[in-house]
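C-alpha cells as discussed.
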C-alpha cells in the first residue's frame, strides 16, 4: 500500500512526532495565526497539538461573538479532562486587525475558516504578505473569487509558499477503503463511464444546521444563514464531494478545467423559522441582511441545497448536498457514495440502518460467480489487513459489508488534525504533491461552473 495511506491512519501524536525534525523539539518551526475565525472548523485545527507547532497562536479578528465563540472552543480543548491541549491565544482584536497581522508578522502559517465572502481576499492578501495558508473550504463561492484564487496559487508558487485546503473526507476510513478497492481489478474491474441517468460515481451529503460539536450544542453565526456570506450549498459542501470524485477516480493524476464538463445543475431552499433561527444562533429575529429572503409566512429561505451532474475525463459523476434544520432523534449528518465498476459496486451508506455511521458495502455486479467473487474480495481484504489489522467482511443481503475495527473510526472532528499533520509534512518538505495545486483549481472551476448553470 502507498505510504500516504499508512501515514493517514497512524495515531495523531505518533504522526506528528514522525513529521518533526530533530531540532523542532527545541524551537518549533511553525507559528500559527488564526485570521478572523467565524466557523468552528478554525478551532478544530487546534483540537490536537503538534510538536513542530508553537503553542502560542496569534489571533487577528474584529471584536464580536465570532471571536468569543472561537476562544471558548480553544479554552474547552485546554481544559478538557481527556488529553487537554496547551494552546496560548495571543489575541489582536479591533477594526485594524488585518493590517496589524501584515505589519507584525508574528507567524508563518495562517489558518482561515470563517465568513466565506471574505475568504478569497484573505487568502490572496495573506499569500502576498508572505504567509503560508491552510484554508477551510470553500475557497470560492462566487465567480469573481476564481481570479483571486488563481492569482493566490501563482503568487504562492513564485514565493515558495504553500496554499492548501482542508479536505477532511479523504481521511474517512470507508472512503479510503472505497478508493483502495477501486484500484484492485480482481474485485472492482474498471471504473465504468456511466451516463447522466446512471453516473459512474454518485455522492450525496445531508447536513443539519442544528447539531452538536465537540460534545456541545453548536451556536451558528447569523451570517451562516446568508448565502452571500456563507455561500450556497452548491459551492460549499460540494467542494468535498468534487474533491473525492477527483481523488478516487483519477488518484494522483493532474486534472485541469478542460477535463470537466458540467451537464446540469439546480439549487433549492431550506426554510428556517424564526424559532429555529434563534435556537441555532441565539438571536431573536432575522438580521436586516437576511430579511429580503423572509417569506410572507415568516420563514427564512436559504439556498443551502444543490446538485449537479458532470463528466470528468468522460466519466459521469453526480454530487448533491441537502441541508435540513435538525436531524431526527438519534440521527446525524449522512453520506452516500457509490462507485460503479465492471465487476463490483462500492457503496457507502450512513443512514438509520448503519446507526448514522458510514459503512462500506461491496456488491458483485455479476461478472464473477459468487464463489470466485468472495475469493477475490477476501484476498484483497487480507492485503489491506497490513494497514488495517482486524479488517474483515461479512454478508449483508446481496452484498458484502466491510467490517472496520473501532480503532479506525475516529470521526469527522479528528480528521482536521490529520489534515493539519499532513500539511505540516508538506510544509517541512517545502512542496505539495504535484497534482494537488492543479486539482484544487480544477475543483474550484467545477463548483463555480455548477453555480453558474444552476441559475
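Sequence:
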Amino acid at each position: 500500500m502507498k505510504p500516504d495511506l499508512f501515514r493517514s491512519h497512524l495515531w495523531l501524536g505518533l504522526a506528528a512526532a514522525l513529521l518533526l525534525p530533530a531540532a523542532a523539539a527545541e524551537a518549533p518551526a511553525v507559528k500559527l495565526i488564526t485570521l478572523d475565525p467565524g466557523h468552528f472548523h478554525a478551532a478544530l485545527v487546534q483540537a490536537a497539538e503538534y510538536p513542530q507547532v508553537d503553542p502560542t497562536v496569534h489571533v487577528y479578528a474584529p471584536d464580536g461573538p465570532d471571536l468569543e465563540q472561537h476562544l471558548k472552543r480553544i479554552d474547552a480543548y485546554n481544559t478538557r479532562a481527556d488529553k487537554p491541549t496547551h494552546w496560548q491565544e495571543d489575541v489582536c482584536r479591533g477594526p485594524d486587525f488585518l493590517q496589524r497581522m501584515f505589519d507584525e508578522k508574528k507567524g508563518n502559517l495562517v489558518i482561515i475558516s470563517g465568513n466565506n465572502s471574505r475568504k478569497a481576499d484573505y487568502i490572496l492578501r495573506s499569500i502576498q504578505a508572505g504567509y503560508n495558508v491552510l484554508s477551510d473550504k470553500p475557497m470560492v463561492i462566487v465567480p469573481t473569487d476564481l481570479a483571486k484564487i488563481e492569482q493566490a496559487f501563482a503568487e504562492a508558487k513564485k514565493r515558495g509558499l504553500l496554499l492548501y485546503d482542508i479536505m477532511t473526507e479523504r481521511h474517512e476510513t470507508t472512503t479510503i477503503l472505497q478508493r483502495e478497492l477501486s484500484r484492485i481489478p480482481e474485485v472492482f474491474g474498471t471504473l465504468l463511464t456511466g451516463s447522466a441517468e446512471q453516473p459512474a460515481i454518485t455522492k450525496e451529503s445531508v447536513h443539519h444546521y442544528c447539531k452538536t460539536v465537540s460534545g456541545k450544542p453548536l451556536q451558528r453565526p447569523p451570517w451562516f444563514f446568508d448565502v452571500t456570506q456563507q455561500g450556497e450549498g452548491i459551492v460549499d459542501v460540494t467542494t468535498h464531494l468534487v474533491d473525492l470524485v477527483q481523488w478516487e477516480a483519477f488518484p494522483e493524476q493532474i486534472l485541469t478545467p478542460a477535463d470537466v464538463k458540467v451537464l446540469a445543475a439546480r439549487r433549492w431552499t431550506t426554510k428556517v423559522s424564526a424559532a429555529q433561527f434563534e435556537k441555532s444562533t441565539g438571536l431573536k429575529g432575522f438580521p436586516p441582511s437576511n430579511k429580503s429572503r423572509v417569506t410572507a409566512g415568516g420563514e427564512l429561505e436559504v439556498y443551502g441545497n444543490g446538485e449537479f451532474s458532470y463528466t470528468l475525463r468522460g466519466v459521469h459523476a453526480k454530487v448533491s448536498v441537502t441541508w435540513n434544520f435538525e436531524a431526527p432523534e438519534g440521527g446525524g449528518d449522512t453520506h452516500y457514495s457509490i462507485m460503479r465498476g465492471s465487476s463490483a459496486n462500492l457503496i457507502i451508506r450512513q443512514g438509520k440502518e448503519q446507526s448514522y455511521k458510514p459503512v462500506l458495502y461491496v456488491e458483485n455486479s455479476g461478472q464473477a460467480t459468487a464463489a470466485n467473487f468472495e475469493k477475490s474480495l477476501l484476498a484483497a481484504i487480507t492485503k489491506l489487513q497490513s494497514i488495517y489489522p482486524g479488517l474483515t467482511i461479512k454478508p449483508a443481503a446481496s452484498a458484502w459489508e466491510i467490517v472496520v475495527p473501532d480503532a479506525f473510526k475516529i470521526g469527522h472532528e479528528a480528521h482536521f488534525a490529520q489534515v493539519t499533520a499532513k500539511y505540516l509534512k508538506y510544509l517541512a518538505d517545502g512542496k505539495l504533491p504535484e497534482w494537488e495545486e492543479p486539482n484544487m483549481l480544477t475543483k474550484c472551476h467545477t463548483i463555480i461552473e455548477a453555480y453558474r448553470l444552476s441559475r
